[in-house]
Design brief:
The protein has 347 residues and is an alpha/beta fold. The protein folds into three domains: 44 residues, lambda repressor-like DNA-binding domains (434 Repressor (Amino-terminal Domain)); 135 residues, 3-Layer(aba) Sandwich (Rossmann fold); 131 residues, Rossmann fold (3-Layer(aba) Sandwich), CATH 3.40.50.2300. 42% of the residues lie in helices and 14% in strands. It has 13 helices and twelve strands. The strands form three sheets. Strands 2-1-3-4-5-11 form a six-stranded parallel β-sheet, sandwiched between helices. A four-stranded parallel β-sheet has the order 7-6-8-9, sandwiched between helices. Strands 10-12 form a two-stranded antiparallel ribbon. α1 packs across α2, α5 packs parallel to α13 and α8 packs parallel to α9. The radius of gyration is 26 Å and the shape is elongated.
């Protein structure tokens, strides 16, 4: 059976020379005779030989490979962050291995071990909704491998991280609903395990408090981001004796799923109920009516996460975050107002 991979041993055997000669010829070492180098390069091309960057990296004690762990790729948020990170990493000569955890803690642990087996030089992470135990990330820290979190962070880990001001963004989104005259504002929040869930919910509560609107516990529900459950919770809201006249959701996919249920109930958006999402997913611009949402600088989030990681990797002084506070970057958001909260002119 033909081998899937061609090695320098295969080239050496065919040319009847040593593998060390092949290796030197491939790297342009001056000790190799030009005719021998030419024969080696010609055969390497004919056999589709590819150098093994992992093996080369291990010999140098670095692989120039970065791991990126994300919880999902169904929305445009995480792919956009990845693109931003890859741009910075590639400019610095690094390649990336992307691991999609499908919002599963067990998959996250397995993928973390996989990245460690590849001897990555650092890891960029946004953890899953199920992650409550951070032992696998603490293990990375103990090994001295640079680690950066983004979007979803943890109070248990003192590591560099990149976030947006979730609290302020949620406050402004809810205040927008209040300013257009809404008083029964429901909030479909994310899992309690996520810090950004708590911050956005606090922003929602404080906006109501500032404008002296009583908080109705029936109008606040945390859910596990399983979109099939949106129908259940939106139906609950709409069947209350006093249904909401506005809805603020944890993210855009939740808002868009909610809008579908609202329309199926024969209600008008925004006349009967205004809707605000979070993230400015591509789909927020494509749905009808267009979704008012909080835009996050996803591309820049990825770039900043990569910059923080590279700073740690290239630092001449080892950063010991057990004795000092890790650096953080907080980026601004922007409220994008569309027809889900404000009628088009002329209507």
């Amino acid at each position: 059976m033909k081998s899937k991979y061609i090695s320098i041993i295969d080239i050496a055997k065919q040319l009847h020379i040593s593998k060390s000669t092949v290796s030197r010829a491939l790297t342009g070492h001056p000790s190799v005779h030009p005719e021998t180098r030419s024969r080696v390069l010609e055969l390497a091309q004919k056999l589709d030989y590819q150098r093994n960057p992992l093996a080369l990296g291990l010999a140098r004690n670095n692989t120039n490979i970065i791991g990126i762990l994300v919880p999902e790729i169904m929305s445009t948020y995480f792919p956009s962050v990845i693109i931003g990170a890859q741009e910075v990493l590639h400019e610095a000569g690094y390649n990336a291995i992307i691991c999609h955890n499908n919002e599963s803690y067990n998959a996250e642990v397995l993928n973390t071990k996989l990245l460690l087996s590849y001897h990555v030089d650092g890891i960029i992470v946004s953890h899953t909704k199920e992650t409550r135990n951070f032992d696998h990330f603490q293990m990375i820290q103990r090994r001295g491998i640079p680690l950066v979190f983004f979007n979803r962070t943890s109070d248990e880990l003192n590591v560099p991280h990149v976030v947006v001001d979730d609290y302020e963004a949620a406050f402004r989104a809810v205040e927008h609903l209040i300013k257009i005259g809404r008083r029964r504002i429901a909030h479909l929040a994310g899992p309690d395990s996520l810090i950004n869930t708590k911050l956005r919910q606090q922003g929602y509560l404080d906006a109501l408090k500032k404008h002296k609107i009583p908080v109705d516990p029936d109008l606040v529900i945390s859910y596990d981001l399983t979109l099939e459950k949106v129908r259940i919770y939106i139906k609950h809201f709409l069947e209350l004796p006093q249904p909401p006249d506005a809805l603020f959701t944890i993210n855009d996919p939740t808002a868009i799923a909610a809008m579908e249920v609202i329309r199926q109930k024969g209600l008008s958006i925004p006349d009967d109920i205004a809707v605000v999402g979070f993230s400015n997913d591509l789909s927020a611009r494509l749905v009808s009516p267009g979704l008012t949402t909080v835009a996050q600088p996803t591309f820049e989030i990825g770039r900043e996460a990569a910059r923080l990681l590279l700073q740690d990797i290239t630092s001449t002084v080892k950063n010991d975050y057990s004795v000092k506070k890790a650096p953080s970057v907080m980026l601004k958001t922007k409220l994008i107002i569309r027809e889900s909260t404000v009628m088009k002119q002329g209507k």
